[in-house]
Write a structure and sequence with these properties.
Chain lengths: 116, 112
């Protein structure tokens, strides 16, 4: 399975500012996913990032608010722009892994964001 | 569209067996995952079913019926450390790739 390094692990930010979250994977992966997990809730998919193309956003999420970069097969960033307290959440990246005998998804350790 | 339904909370006794049910309506269905998530941690993989039937892995088993849009996770010989949220996550094929869509999760509390 892949190992994902996600940072920062947590941050407290002022409203109106932006935060960029990074995910580094120890192997090349085609698809990377960004999720949000609001307090006490499950994971909601924000967008899917495929290397070399623009990210695909889920309903309710837009590129201006959550710009994503995917410069190569091992790295991606998610920016939370113009933050408000409603953006306080845990943000997680995930990768899809396919081999001849295994198929699954691995998650980063998450970024706990508090907007004040 | 996507619709996933699982119980919000369950309680069980240490050493017992518990079954967590999940029903789903998923466009482009391509298998179903179960994840465990302890508070403050990332989800960890438990099981993956793509064909109908039961997959057994130690104390955990998972069942899938594609025709009924139904899955369950069975936890045997419960331990206190099994207290966690259990997430049902169908895989949906759309736009040329697969993606996981998560249910709301079932918070399981295991008591002595």
């Amino acid at each position: 399975s892949a190992v994902i390094s996600q940072k920062p692990s947590r941050d407290i930010c002022q409203r109106g500012t932006s935060l960029t979250i990074q995910c580094q994977v120890d192997s090349q992966v085609t698809m990377m996913f960004w999720y949000r997990q609001q307090p006490g809730q499950s994971l909601t998919l924000i967008a899917t990032a495929n290397q070399g193309s623009e990210a695909t956003y889920e309903s309710g999420f837009v590129i201006d608010k959550f710009p994503i970069s995917r410069p190569n097969l091992t790295f991606s960033t998610l920016t939370v722009s113009n933050m408000s307290p409603e953006d306080s959440s845990i943000y997680l990246c995930s990768v899809e892994l396919k081999t001849a005998i295994n198929y699954g998804y691995t998650f980063g350790s998450g970024t706990r964001l508090t907007v004040v | 569209g996507q619709n996933i339904d699982q119980p919000t909370e369950m309680t069980a006794t240490e050493g017992a067996i518990v079954q967590i049910n999940c029903t789903y309506q998923t466009s482009g269905f391509n298998g179903l995952f179960w994840y465990q998530q302890h508070a403050g941690e990332a989800p960890t993989f438990l099981s993956y079913n793509v064909l109908d039937g039961l997959e057994e892995k130690g104390r955990f088993s998972s069942f899938l019926s594609r025709s009924k849009g139904y899955s369950y996770l069975l936890l045997k010989e419960l331990q206190m450390k099994d207290s966690a949220s259990y997430l049902c996550a169908p895989s949906a094929f759309s736009g040329g790739y697969n993606k996981l869509i998560f249910g709301a999760g079932t918070r399981l509390a295991v008591h002595p």
